[in-house]
Design a protein that fits this description.
Shape: globular
Order of helices and strands: HHHEHEHEEHEHHEHE
Radius of gyration: 17 Å
Largest sheet: 7 strands, mixed
Structural class: alpha/beta
Number of domains: 1
CATH topology: Rossmann fold
Helix content: 25-40%
Mean pLDDT: 90
Strand content: 15-25%
CATH architecture: 3-Layer(aba) Sandwich
Distance between the termini: 31 Å
CATH superfamily: Vaccinia Virus protein VP39
Strand order of the largest sheet: 3-2-1-4-5-7-6
C-alpha cells in the first residue's frame, strides 16, 4: 500500500467511530483488544530489559504514543524523535505525552527522513507492515543508527492461510505483513546481528476468546518464535543490534 493512502487513512480516522481517541479505540474497545494491549505491554517490558539508557531514541509510527509511554517509563533517553506519516497521529501522541520533555514530533515518510544525527535506540510497534519498501526501510535504518545501537520492531505476522480458511477478507492496507524470517534476512543483509524473534500477541485462530488467547500467550511469550508459536502468533517482536 502506498504511503499517501496510509497517511490519508490515519489522518481521517478520528472522523470514524470513536477513533478521535485512537489509543482507546485501538486497544480498549473490547475484551479481545484489551487482551492484546496487556500482551503488548507485558512483552515490551520483557524485551526492553537490555535496551541501553541515555541514548538518542528514534521511534517509527508512534501512533497515539501508547507504547512510547511504556518505553520511556523504563528507560532514560537523551532525546526522542517520533516519526509518523500522519499529522493526526502525531497530534494525538503530543496530547498523550504532554508531560514528557525532549520529544520531537516529525511528520515524514520514513525513507525520506533525513536527521542530522544518528541514534542509539530504534523502536517501532505495528507500523512496519504499512511500509511499501520494507527492505529499503531496513537499509535506511542501518544508515540512521550508531554502531552497537539497539532495536526492536513489533509487527504483524502474516497468517493469510487462517484468513482464507475462515473466509475473512484481508483489506488492502493489511497485505504488507512480513514473515519474521524474511525480515531477519533484511536485517542480516544490512549489518544487524544478535537477532531474536519472540511472540508479542497471541491468538487462537479458530476461537474468539480473550481468556484463551491470554492463556496461550502466557505459555509462549518468553520463548523464541518457533514452529509451534508461529501458529498462534498474531504479532511478533524482532530484537537486533547494529554491527
Amino acid at each position: 500500500m502506498q504511503s499517501e493512502e496510509i497517511k490519508k487513512f490515519y489522518n481521517t480516522l478520528p472522523q470514524k467511530d470513536q477513533a478521535a481517541d485512537y489509543e482507546s479505540y485501538r486497544w480498549h474497545k473490547d475484551e479481545l483488544a484489551q487482551a492484546g494491549y496487556v500482551m503488548n505491554l507485558n512483552s515490551l517490558n520483557f524485551l526492553i530489559k537490555d535496551c541501553p539508557e541515555n541514548q538518542d531514541y528514534l521511534e517509527l509510527g508512534p501512533g497515539a504514543g501508547t507504547w512510547t509511554k511504556v518505553l520511556l517509563k523504563q528507560k532514560l533517553q537523551q532525546t526522542i524523535d517520533l516519526v509518523d506519516i500522519s499529522s493526526e497521529m502525531l497530534k494525538q501522541a503530543e496530547n498523550n505525552l504532554i508531560d514528557l520533555s525532549n520529544l520531537h514530533y516529525i511528520e515524514s515518510d520514513f525513507v525520506n527522513f533525513r536527521p542530522n544525527k544518528k541514534y542509539g535506540v530504534f523502536f517501532s510497534c505495528r507500523a512496519f507492515e504499512y511500509l511499501s519498501d520494507q527492505e529499503g526501510a531496513i537499509r535506511h535504518l542501518a544508515e540512521l543508527l550508531n554502531q552497537g545501537a539497539w532495536g526492536l520492531i513489533i509487527t504483524k505476522n502474516p497468517r493469510y492461510f487462517f484468513d482464507r480458511l475462515l473466509g475473512r477478507k484481508v483489506v488492502k492496507m493489511h497485505l504488507g505483513q512480513i514473515n519474521p524470517f524474511k525480515l531477519k534476512g533484511f536485517l542480516q543483509k544490512y549489518g544487524f546481528n544478535k537477532i531474536e524473534i519472540y511472540p508479542i500477541t497471541v491468538t487462537c485462530p479458530l476461537f474468539k476468546s480473550a481468556k484463551l488467547n491470554y492463556l496461550a500467550y502466557k505459555i509462549l511469550y518468553r520463548f523464541k518464535y518457533s514452529l509451534i508459536s508461529c501458529l498462534f502468533t498474531e504479532a511478533y517482536g524482532i530484537k537486533f543490534r547494529k554491527s
